[in-house]
Amino acid sequence: MGDTRPIGVFDSGLGGLTVARAIATELPSESIRYFGDTERCPYGERPQDEVRGFVAQLARWFDARDVKLLVVACNTATAAGLSVAQRMLDIPVLGVIVPGARAVVQATHTRRVGVLATKGTCDSGRYRRAIHALDAGVRVWQAPSPRSVEIVERAVASPHAMGRDWMGDKDYLDTEEALAVAAEDLAPLMGHGIDAVILGCTHFPLLKQVYQRVLGPGVTIVSSAEETAREVRQYLGRAGELAPEGHQAKYHFATTSPELAQFCVAGEYVFGRKLEAVEHVDVADLEALASEGWPL
Amino acid sequence: MGDTRPIGVFDSGLGGLTVARAIATELPSESIRYFGDTERCPYGERPQDEVRGFVAQLARWFDARDVKLLVVACNTATAAGLSVAQRMLDIPVLGVIVPGARAVVQATHTRRVGVLATKGTCDSGRYRRAIHALDAGVRVWQAPSPRSVEIVERAVASPHAMGRDWMGDKDYLDTEEALAVAAEDLAPLMGHGIDAVILGCTHFPLLKQVYQRVLGPGVTIVSSAEETAREVRQYLGRAGELAPEGHQAKYHFATTSPELAQFCVAGEYVFGRKLEAVEHVDVADLEALASEGWPL
């Protein structure tokens, strides 16, 4: 009984490892196959059509690797291409936007919420729509913060990342620069009585402490990562596809990054454990997948 | 700590007691204030605008009664007026369609699902949209069955209802007539590889055994009632508004039915316990609420 096939997790880079980590914590018997498209990261400022094409390539890549469920762990990719992947594949494909929207709607008392995301995700209006599909009476303010992504990306590349557990080491990214950027970028969320904010980018949980300082203690900050992990559990549970308890989970990582060593070092501190099986995938090979016929 | 205010549950008649019952089972410490608009039941064939007006009246009625969360436990009313109630009230208002859509999307393996509902709910397209918002790759077939509502309503009014627990007494509605109607009305769901069907009307759980016989054992039948009860738990839990464990729940019922005794007898067998506090509300008083000013 049970299904020991891995769960696929796809992100534009390392940010989705926050989601993979939440899945590994929530479901310790589940194997995970992760793909980080680091070479083409960030997706946030790219045209929606281009991102949609990337998602289609990755859907094909995962289709050949027998995963039982795929998580599009990047908000920008979810906004642009989730429905494409869902129509392409025979397995359930989950995004991070619907779980995040559920969480923020459930968390608010004032029914005034904030969305902190990349520009692409904000512009897509997907969070607003997902929130209003659940509760038409909730008011939504958005704040794009591309600079938050940059701060996290830069920190990933820094040698100071070595030896740290980012999600555990709460003060690491709590710098003066990060605080100044957050104070500026979060301004659209201030003064409206907002009491719950969704972190609509998988990079952002690493800056949660900084955001909390800016927003104040009365605001609940919700991350898509935990919500998505709970959603994965519900899907697999209801479908009878959870791996049997005690199953030895395996974690496999693939990346388009040519700097495999750096991906391993940085990834370890986002995922919270050593990345042991890491494979390089050439962007050209992904692009070749796109030219193959596919019934869309 | 905790919030002992009741949960409001609103339905066009008795069907929503299947939802109230699921909430009472899932959350035994929670008080419930139920409203059944029996005098104007069924809503299923009425114009959407009219049903929307009814929902607005009931939202006002509940607003004056200090409930902490309101469930619109009628699919037709959810489809027509959920967003109106959400914009009118300061509390969370949950419908039954989104929880049901979640459940059926999670339950299917073939990613081909059926919706069995009233004509109004089918025509509104809300289930199809809610399902596709979660998974654009799931194919949906709909089957309206107004006659199922009639069979249940007639059985409610019958003296044979006395002394029965409808949800427990599985064979009670499993008659030749019900089977013939189900075989005919469920025809649009047959032969498509559907492996999960949502009962998109609160009356229909009472006919679940009949539907299962028609659909066959390989099809999972999902009822909105349990899903909605789980959703209520999530909302209250996350907002810190669950009643403290061991709190003595009180159940209060109101109905527009002029036949209070009959409402009590029939209600008891859907709700699964005696209806002790039952109040009659005049339709004219609800209509008067509609003429009062309200900032919509």
UniProtKB/TrEMBL annotation, chains A, B:
Pathway: Cell wall biogenesis; peptidoglycan biosynthesis. Pfam families: Asp_Glu_race. PROSITE patterns: ASP_GLU_RACEMASE_1, ASP_GLU_RACEMASE_2. It comes from the Bacteria. One of its GO terms (biological process) is cell wall organization. The keyword NAD does not apply. It is an enzyme of class 5 (isomerase). Substrate binds at D11, S12, Y43, G44, N75, T76, T202, H203. Provides the (R)-glutamate required for cell wall biosynthesis. Belongs to the aspartate/glutamate racemases family. This is Glutamate racemase. The gene is murI.
